[in-house]
Specification:
The chain is α/β, with parallel strands linked by helices. About 45% of the residues lie in helices and about 10% in strands.
Length: about 450
């Protein structure tokens, strides 16, 4: 307990003697020795391996990190007596690359890009997980086999082929808004990864217009960027959001961070009505206040012909340093209880077949509905194409969406450049990104 601001209260005169300086010095030295001894014991316990540690790198900070700690890390530490040294960074790809280059990678990493993980697997940086995760718990679009092994699995997932709108917006109003570029809430800003919301648009348009087969050919590097189908997806997006049009509209889209794109929904008068964004955006304050509802994007994308095809994304767990405690953490993350915990907190979704929500489960109606769609075995689920592409192609794709939005006449040159990059030797392309329809 801290002393009062004025210092220790003096004893009342004549009631007790002030302790001698010698006694004070003796007590102080004794306390310091005890503190040093306690610290030495902690260090010694760790050095002797009696308090093992596993390092974990992911991109979750803020509320997402708090959910991770409450739903995943704390139960693991309590049950297994293993300390988790967690590092959350919005620039985790750069952090991981630097750590791998320095020879000090984390034990376990959670990344959104299977294409990036495939590149690490090709460099023999990842350990196979075949004996650590349950068989058939995750579909092939989530735990994609590579060279006969599984190197990653989803800790949580999100649905992307959806459009959000405020409660009370009629079907007719939504259809009218979809034809007006200014009614789309668009924000391409995301720091070092700016542009990815634009890639989501183009990917989903291609999927809805031509189905999983064409989508997968493109995501595997087999369909050229300059093909009429891929080019058509770009131009459709451009017309929908007004690429190269009104300067204020384009400027708003380019400068707005994706997390704030929906803020005009709650303005008076309303600044935009529709947002093409993944399920995680429903937790933003604007959509909470607007009681956000969703519908399949196929209903609003011109020329959509696909039936029950969904673009999806996920946070994927991989093992870089094979230690007993790291293997325990992998088993824990792949367990049905942890997979269910994400859905229970509505901080994401599980696509583990063992974590299927039971009838009558508590939770928001929109969350239960999205969870059911992600686990629907009749639907086609195609992983985010840019996340599945080699990192160099993914990054160039994101940058190209920014330039296209401002200068749509640059599209032929952009697509040609992406084709040139995609045919570079030694790139690792995934063999599959969709679980059906191919």
């Amino acid at each position: 307990m801290s002393a009062p601001p004025s210092g220790p209260a003096p004893a009342a005169a004549g009631t007790r003697r002030r302790p001698s300086r010698r006694l004070i010095r003796t007590v102080t030295v004794g306390l310091c020795c005890l503190a040093v001894l306690a610290a030495a014991v902690v260090v010694g316990v760790r050095a002797l391996g009696q308090e093992p540690t596993v390092t974990l790198l992911a991109n979750w900070t803020g509320d997402d990190e708090r959910n991770l700690r409450a739903a995943v890390i704390e139960p693991f530490e309590r049950d297994h007596h293993i300390h988790v040294d967690y590092q959350g960074s919005s620039a985790e790809s750069q952090v991981l690359g630097a750590d791998v280059e320095a020879g000090t990678p984390p034990d376990v990493v959670v990344l959104t890009g299977p294409g990036e993980l495939a590149a690490y697997a090709g460099q023999n940086q990842l350990e196979p997980l075949d004996d650590l995760i349950p068989r058939d718990a995750f579909g092939s679009s989530w735990a994609t086999p590579l060279n006969g092994h599984v190197y990653w699995f989803p800790l949580k997932a999100d649905l992307k082929s959806i459009v959000w709108y405020p409660a009370g917006t009629s079907e007719r109003q939504r259809a009218q808004a979809a034809g007006r570029p200014g009614q789309w809430c668009v924000g391409l800003g995301s720091g070092a990864t700016s542009g990815w919301p634009g890639t989501d648009w183009i990917e989903d348009i291609l999927l809805q217009q031509y189905g999983p087969g064409i989508y997968q050919q493109w995501a595997r590097g087999e369909l050229p960027w300059q093909s009429p189908k891929v080019k058509g997806a770009w131009t459709t997006w451009g017309r929908m959001v007004g690429a190269g049009g009104k300067a204020d509209l384009v400027r708003r889209a380019l400068k707005t961070p994706y997390q704030k794109a929906s803020e005009p929904v709650t303005a008076r008068p309303r600044g935009c009505t529709l947002e093409h964004q993944a399920s995680f955006i429903r937790n933003q304050d604007a959509w909470k206040r607007a009681d956000g509802r969703y519908e399949p994007s196929a209903r609003l994308i011109p020329g959509a012909t696909a039936s029950d095809a969904w673009e999806v994304s996920g946070d994927l767990v991989a093992l870089l340093h094979d230690t007993p405690q790291a293997r325990e953490l992998i088993r824990h993350l792949a367990s049905a209880s942890v997979q269910r915990a994400w859905s229970a907190r509505e901080s994401g979704f599980s696509v583990d077949t063992r974590a299927r929500p039971a009838p009558g489960d508590a939770g928001s109606a929109w969350h239960r509905s999205l969870a059911a769609t992600l686990l629907d075995t009749r639907a086609a689920h195609c992983f985010d194409a840019s996340d599945a592409m080699p990192p160099a192609v993914r990054d160039a794709f994101a940058e190209a969406t920014i330039e296209f939005l401002a200068h749509p006449d640059h599209l032929p040159a952009l697509l040609k450049s992406l084709d040139t990059l995609s045919t570079t030797r030694d790139l690792t392309w995934l063999p599959t990104v969709c679980d059906h329809g191919t």
